[in-house]
Amino acid sequence: MPPVHELHYQWLPALRARLEQRFGQERRDSAHDLAHCLRVARTAQAIALEEGADPEACVAAALLHDLVYLPKNHPDSHRTARMAQGLALDWCRSIPELASRAELIAGAVGTHSFSGGATATSLEGSVLQDADRLESLGAIGLARVFATGGSMGAGLWEPGDPWARDRELDDKLWSLDHFEKKLLRLAERMNTQAGQRMAKPREKLIRVFLAALERELGGVE
Known about the structure:
This protein is mainly alpha-helical and 221 residues long. It is 55% helix and 0% strand. It has a single domain (12-217), classed as Hypothetical protein af1432 (Orthogonal Bundle). Helix 2 (34-51) packs antiparallel against helix 3 (55-64) and helix 3 crosses helix 5. The chain is globular. The N and C termini lie far apart (50 Å).
């Protein structure tokens, strides 16, 4: 079994090269690049080892979970997980070491998306959901939310009402709205005990950041 923070599988170099080629042909935002998939894979492996899931299947699903990319303001963005599921199935069937678990891996890919609203149907799917959502919390989550917003042309926050006290949240227009609309709901929705444990300090960091931002926007130091 590979160490928790290392990924050593015979099929990995070839799959990574294939992903690099595919991702390199697309115009993706920096929050949904190959580095993101590799981080999710490492986290998924760690959770899988703790929870008794198949770590190899979880790593493969994590690497393939963003196989289909659409910008977050695209009308079909919420469908990308289901779109990726079919591709992941074909990719896994072409890899001898993964072929017998192709449906398990593809199923996890198909249910991973928060915006898609699907419920995981396997432990490996639950692990992938948690690993991907942990990327939206903590210091990495802070970086990714503003990277995604910037790629869509969203503002940092609505100047007249940054905390949406007298308006509807719109995270396609204002990046700060994404915290209330999604990120602060993630920790309580973690499927696994490992995911719940990892999410708590990351959510705390998010809340510390938001409190500091509110003080600064209010002119209080």
